[in-house]
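REQUEST FORM: STRUCTURE PREDICTION
Request ID: SP-0412
Submitted by: Lab K.M.
Chain count: 1
Length (residues): 159
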Amino acid sequence: MSLDKSHTLPEVFCLVVEELAFMFGEPVTPDELPDAVDDATLASITFHGPMTGELIMIGPRGLAFMMAANILGLDDVTDVDQAIDAMGEALNVCCGQVLTAAFGDELVFDLTPPQVGPAQHDQWQNLKTDANAFAFMVDDMPIMLRLQVDQGEEACTTS
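STATUS: Completed
RESULT:
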């Protein structure tokens, strides 16, 4: 069982931001992104099942606020908790849909709650040079995702 990340992740991510947050996502090359992002936010989620792994997303803090406003149908969001929740929810939905697109809906994966917080400058740099990371522009804001998938300890199926 393997996951073709090169097609699945970009397609699913762009669809999720469009349908969940009413934002337009476009895959770009890492060279098209800035070398640094001030005040970046990092979100991560892990999954366990037939495969184990982690999906991380990093982008400007303003993107999280914009996602929150769009998801909640508000003109503006200033509440940090709402922004954190929105970014975490976008990552959660993306992870679930990537796993379903790659492995079908017969396999069961347990997802941890998303962890969202400030990113360190070197985390942006590390992802930008990571061959397994994907770069996007979402409504003119840079964002990167990285999906790491390892073999799981056991195969889980639905009953």
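NOTES: Strands lie at 25-28, 40-48, 51-60, 110-111, 115-118, 133-138, 141-151.
Reviewed by: T.R.
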